[in-house]
User: Fold these one by one.
Assistant:
Number 1:
Amino acid sequence: MTSFSKLLKSALLAVAFSAFGAASPVDHPTRRSFTIGANLQIEAFHPLSTFETFGAGIDHPLSKRSKFDLKSAAISFVGSHLSKSASSVAFKSGFSGEVSDHAFLAQMHDGIPFANAVANVAFNKDNKVVTFGSSFVNPSKSFASTTPSISVESAISIAEKALDGTFNNHPPTIEFFAKPDNTAVLTHVVQIQNDATGAWFEAFVDAHSGELVSVTDFVTRASYLVLPMQEEILTQGFQTLVDPADLTASPLGWHSTGTTNTTHFETSRGNNAISFKGAQTATTSESSDALNFIFKQDPTLAPTVQVNLDAARTNAFYVVNTMHDLTYKYGFTEASFNFQNNNFGKGGVGNDQVTISVQDSAGTNNADFATPADGQSGRMRMFLWTFTSPQRDGALENDIVTHEMTHGVTNRMTGGGTGRCLQTTEAGGMGEGWSDTMAFWNEQTSTATPDFILGQYVENNTVGIRTHPYSTNPAVNPLQYSDLQTRTEVHSIGEVWANMLFNVYANLVGIHGFSSNARRDPTTSEGNVVFLHLFIDSLAIQPCNPTFLNARDAWLQADVNRFGGANACALWDAFASRGLGVGAANHTNSFLLPPGCPSS
Ligand SMILES: *[C@@H]1O[C@H](CO)[C@@H](O)[C@H](O)[C@H]1NC(C)=O
Ligand SMILES: *[C@@H]1O[C@H](CO)[C@@H](O)[C@H](O)[C@H]1NC(C)=O
Ligand SMILES: *[C@@H]1O[C@H](CO)[C@@H](O)[C@H](O)[C@H]1NC(C)=O
Ligand SMILES: [Ca+2]
Ligand SMILES: [Zn+2]
């Protein structure tokens, strides 16, 4: 059984490598290579972001104004900090969070924004700048004419042909694109999808030469990486929960998008999510009146029989809504680019509930999540798994659904809702790590923080599918920052990051204890509550396409913003223990703690 499963895993690993392998570990922070079809190789490029954190904060040019205005404060700060004129900086999006306000900006030239030269500024509630990230560029040659010489129609057909898909009618834009040779080209930006393969790209086509310059890949694939429940026993997931919706996060419950509870859908459809098979009309209807969804999965029967299908649609709907409510309470709201159809006038762009396609016919032994920009639905696809007889259903594996949903959270909150800011190999790798992290956070039940072995329901493999369990013991999990020198695939990079965060988690819970009510109440001071605040807070302050160093610094600054830096040494201790200490750089370890932090 073990060797059989290992064999399959390495086959899947190979697939993942060909689709996502980086050119070289040195390029992790700025690139990702894509092989599309038989012979198209595209290297997506993202200028390296700078990232500065300012502790208690620094002034900006408009600090003396009595009234704080996020947009003008951010534009004036970026302009002065980078010596750019106000006309080369545009405000793209922003939101006011519980402990900091966030602005996301783009470099401009002749009134046209750059796609990949962006900046983000965060202000604390004292009107001070606390973080600044920037990938602004100084292109070496003169800019191309801002009048395209090829039409958008031609750009669409070039992109359709190259990417083997179809234009999805999302309105195209014109944006500059900074290239690795330090030039900037004008591009038509068009979205291309392929329903059969699940591909969903944003293509950047040079509006003068017609060259396909780069792509954004909105899809994160689970491939061989599946995150099963620790317990493995499905029946534990089938408690009957009464009214699990959190009415702070989902004011009309989970089944309504209207203005009152009485306009609810009596199906697996609502404001945050819709789960269906095949067509969006094929939802699960309540099993009895008053929104009861009681479908007892029968593991001896095929997943496709009616009761099992209904159990799958119900479970996926439940997990995605639970994740919506949980992350909402910790800061992933309408204004910070979450997934809801009706935003109740609270900011952000609506009409983007998560669509959950269960038992999707496009594949097997996989799952994926596509995160386009705020205002377009997140797309989750769950496949059947063929390792067992009867087959098993990924929608019944809570950790798979949680892992996939977390891709939506991290891709939306990093970089201001564009879906463009976890695209490099290193940033995409941390994306996988955050998704694992949310899975282990959800599974904790006490202060004990045992090693976390990702078991396996869908593959029926108890060994787990990661190379190591997550652990505070370096003999159990030896992964360090320097492993990025040899790890070139996003999921394997994610393991390094998730294990660092596992150690952060263990430190915080060791110091502050554990709250069993953390899902409902984010206001208490236990370690798991503190951890999830820092997790969510750090996403919005880190730069577009962050490196490990940027992300570590964002956690430290998030702790300053919310807790006055009370946990600095606990964070440093965990990061440094895995090589991400004070002097770490360029994938070279440092185990150094800053002065004032005792070594443990
Ligand atoms: C919606 O229904 C829930 C019970 O499911 C109730 O607690 C809540 O007050 C209702 N909200 C409104 C706006 O009617
Ligand atoms: C799962 O694995 C166990 C142990 O190898 C085996 O006994 C069981 O039959 C398997 N279940 C399925 C559904 O394949
Ligand atoms: C970073 O490390 C790689 C080897 O891992 C080396 O080739 C490269 O020159 C280093 N870059 C810097 C700036 O030190
Ligand atoms: Ca939204
Ligand atoms: Zn993933």
Note: The chain has ten helices and 19 strands.
Number 2:
Amino acid sequence: MVAGLVGLAMAELAAAVLRARLSPVAAVGEAVIEVTPGGVAERAIEAVGQWDKPLLLSGVVLGLLLGCACAGVIGVRRPRGGTLLMVALAAIAFAASVTRPDAAPTSFLPSIIGGGAGVFTYQWLLPRALAVVGKRSEEPTGRRKFLVAAGGLLVGAAVVAWASRWVGQARRGVEQARSSLRLALASVSTPDGADLGVRGVVPWVTPTTDFYRIDTALAPPLVSPADWELRIHGLVERELTISYDELLARGLQDAWITLCCVSNEVGGDLISNAQWSGVPIADLLAEAGVSPDADALLSTSQDGWTAGTPLSALTDGRDALLAVGMNGVPLPIEHGFPVRMVVPGLYGFVSATKWVVEWEVTRFADFTAYWTDRGWSPDGPVKTQSRIDTPRSGDRREPGPTRVGGVAWAQHTGIERVEVRVDDGEWQEATLAREPSIDSWVQWVHGWDAEPGDHTLAVRATDRSGYIQTGAQADTVPDGATGWHTVEVSVA
Ligand SMILES: Nc1nc2c(c(=O)[nH]1)N[C@H]1C(S)=C(S)[C@@H](COP(=O)(O)O)O[C@H]1N2
Ligand SMILES: [Mo]
């Protein structure tokens, strides 16, 4: 039973951290409701009134503990059998979790984590329990050892259960603060002509739920707007501390900016486009008065992550924003709520600090940041790149006219031209969509008269500085991948 409680606590914690709608216990409860005949359920509810849910959940927990007690009894003679029963109990929770109609890809995790913890604890505790039973408690140290171990585990389980409550509540509190905000954000609609609507090409505006996510946070920092402050210090004339309301009072601007991760492989999907709303970073730096000696802004997030950004990129007039909104709504918690940075033209790891709380105006010579400490470059301008979204590698197409399409990007430089090459043929110019901003990616499409056989398609972009995207392949480390994206298609 101790093992069962340990597993239960771990499952609750995993569910809270993963923001699962249901913990495994609740999932089993829902499954019970599902298989209970309507008449029986109605009579039960009539009998117990609004206690139906707490009773059901307690029933599930009791059932679990009963099962665990059986596993304990069985384990005295057949440790294997006891383990098997523990695994079966976890399997019930697993089955209930993944068969919920709204099950997410991660729904199985809490039951696996909790089940694993329970089975592991059972196997660890059982020999100690057997030592007591076997010696008929004549040896007091065996008994004491077992009691200490079991007691310690129970206390641990209680702490974990309490932590899971706390995690869940903190999350709900911030979620509520977020949904009660009334920000003056531009509504989002795709600018005319930006989306070519080619099937298989990602939408020009990335829906927020599909926006890539990269951070080092196991669970996202939970910061309420009421508690948020940005401290600006370092090589400035005036130190400033700005609250959320003070930030909003400066007025919001909207900008289309395509954010990209330096870890994006050639052809990868760690790139997304959104409309960001926020206050120009340059305005805040001007208020603080930046010293001419400084060349960097070291930004720190609530969870201690850091990035170093060239001051030049923040003050040269581009839409570098201290953002509070994304695609017309307050930033989602995962994307940096309540406030993050977004800088066109720079990879996220040197510029896009989420949950940002501190700015130090400083010099690159005087610090290192989170990823520069781990082998990545201190500089991170986005490299001009292009990607084929359709066809995909391995696709089969009918012979005849067909469409090749994708996206290209050179944030804050702009895309001049995209070319497609079939096998060893000539580079042929593709048609570009309208580009509402040089800070976002551009869709392209190319008509291809596909001839039977196996073909390799390649794409390359030329940006408005005249630079033609290199075909030389470079790894993502230390400052971004290069090379042409190619796909293999068979035409038959
Ligand atoms: N606090 C914090 N901010 C962060 C990161 C992080 O790990 N922690 N990762 C950065 C990286 S590497 C990228 S690519 C972008 C990704 O932003 P997104 O998750 O909103 O897409 O956030 C940046 N900001
Ligand atoms: Mo990144």
Note: Residues 214, 261-263, 347-349 surround molybdenum atom (ligand 2) (CB under 6 Å).
